[in-house]
């Protein structure tokens, strides 16, 4: 995957190395240190200088590593594609933000840790990913390759597209007779399909950015994170009634529908 040709989006936050997503100077640990200094006769100025120094050091962290550049490229590529799709239908696409973090961070949907896995928060329209997940994807789940990682981001972007189209609100408002898990599965499978549609776009360009074999990396990634496979790995058996994202076969199917057709209108997982 020649992802460097996708450009660089400015909608990427680098929170890595900042505990809990960062602390304001006047709050949290900084305030505690300042109080301790006052109680024990220290120089508050020294404490403030130290806090400011740590903050500046975090903010000046170079944002030129491959994980950051990769995130910039994928968000740039998805923004370009969905922006065109929305424009053709007379809509305006509001671009999401990708937030990279390590360990844990605060979000519009509450606090999150690396164990949460990649997710989209509709409250702040941000996609949260700890880049270490990509290593897990390759080593633990056996889904290797740049497009496998790109699929993960594109899937979360798919949730943003659902948010923009009002699909999330419609699902929540209408309810689901088969239960919340069923509604969740349908949303996840549609996001898989949207990721496949974007993959088709990259693979069918005049000068393709993704080859057909690389596109299959997305299928492998979709299969690898199916609920049945994850449950079997963790507890030895799968319970379909507790699925929230869909089985490996379902995720493979819907990603493939998008990848083969390149048509988001074919991604109606709710029928």
Automatic annotation (TrEMBL):
Superkingdom in the source lineage: Bacteria
SUPFAM superfamilies: Metalloproteases ('zincins'), catalytic domain (SSF55486)
Membrane topology of this protein: Single-pass membrane protein
Phylogenetic classification of the source organism: Bacteria, Thermotogati, Deinococcota, Deinococci, Deinococcales
UniProt keyword Metal-binding present: no
Record localization: Membrane
Protein name in the entry: Metallopeptidase
InterPro entries recorded: Uncharacterised_pept_Zn_put
Keywords assigned by UniProt, alphabetized: Membrane, Transmembrane, Transmembrane helix
Matches recorded under PANTHER family: INNER MEMBRANE PROTEIN (PTHR30168:SF0), PUTATIVE MEMBRANE PROTEIN YPFJ (PTHR30168)
Transmembrane feature ranges: 21-42
Major localisation: membrane
């Amino acid at each position: 995957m020649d992802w460097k040709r996708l450009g660089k989006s400015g909608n990427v936050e680098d929170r890595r190395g900042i505990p809990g997503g960062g602390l304001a100077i006047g709050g949290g640990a900084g305030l505690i240190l300042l109080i301790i200094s006052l109680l024990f006769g220290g120089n508050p100025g020294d404490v403030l200088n130290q806090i400011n120094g740590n903050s500046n050091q975090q903010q000046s962290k170079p944002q030129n590593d491959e994980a950051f550049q990769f995130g910039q490229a994928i968000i740039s590529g998805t923004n370009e594609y969905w922006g065109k799709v929305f424009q053709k239908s007379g809509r305006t696409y509001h671009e999401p933000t990708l937030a990279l973090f390590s360990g844990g961070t605060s979000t519009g949907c509450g606090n999150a840790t690396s164990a949460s896995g990649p997710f989209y928060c509709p409250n702040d329209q941000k996609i949260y990913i700890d880049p270490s997940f990509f290593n897990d994807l390759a080593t633990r789940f056996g889904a290797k390759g740049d497009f496998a990682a790109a699929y993960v981001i594109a899937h979360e972007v798919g949730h943003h597209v659902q948010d923009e189209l009002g699909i999330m609100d419609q699902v929540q408002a209408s309810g689901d007779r088969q239960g919340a898990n069923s509604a969740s599965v349908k949303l996840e499978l549609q996001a898989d399909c949207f990721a496949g549609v974007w993959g088709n776009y990259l693979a069918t360009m005049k000068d393709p950015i993704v080859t057909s074999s690389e596109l299959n990396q997305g299928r492998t990634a979709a299969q690898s994170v199916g609920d049945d496979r994850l449950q079997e790995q963790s507890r030895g058996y799968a319970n379909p009634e507790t699925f929230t994202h869909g089985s490996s076969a379902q995720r493979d199917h819907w990603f493939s529908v998008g990848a083969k057709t390149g048509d988001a209108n074919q991604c109606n997982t709710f029928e």
